[in-house]
Amino acid sequence: MTHRSDTLESFLQATAPEPTPLQREMAETATELSFPIVGPVAGAVLAQVTRLTDADRVFEFGSGFGYSATWFVRGGATDVVCTEFDEDEVQLGRELVADAGLDERITFEYGDAMETVTQYDGPFDAVLIDHQKHRYVDAYDAVKPTLSDSAVVVADNVVRGPLDFETLAAHFSDGTPLPSQEEDEGTWGIGTYLNRVREDDDSETVLLPVGSGLAVSTVTR
Ligand SMILES: C[S@@+](CC[C@H](N)C(=O)[O-])C[C@H]1O[C@@H](n2cnc3c(N)ncnc32)[C@H](O)[C@@H]1O
To answer: Tens digit of pLDDT for each residue in 53-90?
Structure first.
């Protein structure tokens, strides 16, 4: 039996923008390597967000070989800083991006994203947080001083994945406590991140259930 959500997912995938040759190659590589990428529907949202806000400079926490970065470029970004602490991913990303002639627009920084972000002053117009869930809050706080006045911060993996959504839903509807970091690092990480951005007077956040789920926060200061 086909579930309604399967039908919806197929519909969303079928109506997503046609991938570029590089995006197609990267998606095939991700499938071969069982590597988690944002996918074409969430990727297309990144492109739309970039286009709608005229975002130019982008910082990514956790880039793999650069699939999500290609969507920011597709939306018009000219300078995407990718961060990745897996050397093989960085190497592959640099090769793929150079072969596609995008190495002037997409730069790979090898190392811990939390360290790399301290080396940039910004301003950044768009940010993707897609690394370790327990570090999402720290990533937001680290990048916040570098945000331009019209910036958008997108966090991935907020509605799907190995998370306890019943507890998350209860937490945000009636204040049920989150599990501790030791009990469930992913659920704790996403829950504390959503609390952080929702309580931030300088931004407003909405969740989009595309791909693994995007939390989109726009600067309102
Ligand atoms: C979900 S994948 C990123 C996918 C990518 N955003 C895309 O959609 O194409 C997460 C990546 O973050 C990397 N990562 C996790 N924690 C990191 C950190 N602290 N610094 C740098 N890279 C990190 C992992 O090695 C992994 O390749």
So the answer is: 999 999 999 999 999 999 999 999 999 999 999 999 99
Q: Which element (helix H / strand E) includes 127? A: strand 124-129
**154: exposed, middle or buried (C-beta count within 10 Å: 0-12, 13-18, 19+)?**
buried
Tell me how far apart the alpha carbons of residues 143 and 141 are, in angstroms, rounded to a whole number.
Answer: 6
pLDDT above 90 covers a percentage of the chain that reads 94
Cα 35 to ligand 1 centre (Å)? 10
In this structure, are residues 34 and 60 in contact, taking their beta carbons and an 8 Å threshold? no
* Residues framing ligand 1 (Cβ under 6 A): 36-38, 62-64, 67-68, 83-86, 89, 112-114, 130-132
Say which CATH class 4-219 falls into.
alpha beta
Determine the distance separating the centroid of ligand 1 and the alpha carbon of 122, expressed in angstroms.
20
User: pLDDT value at position 6?
Assistant: 84
Domain boundaries of the chain, sorted by first residue: 4-219
Q: Whose CA is nearest to atom 13 of ligand 1?
A: 62
